[in-house]
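A student in our group prepared the protein record below, which I am reviewing. I have pasted the whole thing underneath without changing anything:
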Amino acid sequence: MLDQVTINKLHDMKLSAMAEAFRNQILDQAVANLSFEERFGLIVDIEWTKPKNAHLARLIRNAGFSESDACIENIEYAADRKIDKTQIDNLTTCNYIQEKHNIIILGAAGAGKSYLGCAFGAAACRKFYATKYIRLPELLNDLAVAKGEGTYQQLRSTRRSACSFWMNGY
């Protein structure tokens, strides 16, 4: 009875993740062996991560990745692909964004340029950077249109606030 009142109060305070975690703890006998502090810490962690997860999902959705499941951890480092794992690990830190650099990925058709771009973008999103997936032809078109309309500086500042990945086959 008291548990349901507590759950209702949590919902009233807009702490739905906490309410669900509390309900799950009531039902899970394995949690019964934990101390109050440990149980409460788990509940608070769940509520704390909820908005962060929602923010991350929004960043990924807004990035417009062509391959939404791409991630750095799934890159295949076969010898014929000539991908430098050290360089990939270095780029995964996203320091290039702080240094105001971009990534340009070149390779033959089917080499995995789009996958790499999406994986780098996902890594940037996980560090809560606004990211936009754009292929080189679209970028060049956007730049030409912006220059013609006199909105080049506005487009340039927009592109600077996000990390960009430009891809082209050769």
Observations:
- Residues 54 and 60 are 10 Å apart (CA to CA).
- Helices lie at 2-12, 16-27, 36-63, 85-92, 95-98, 113-126, 136-149, 152-161.
- The longest helix spans residues 36-63.
- The mean pLDDT is 83.
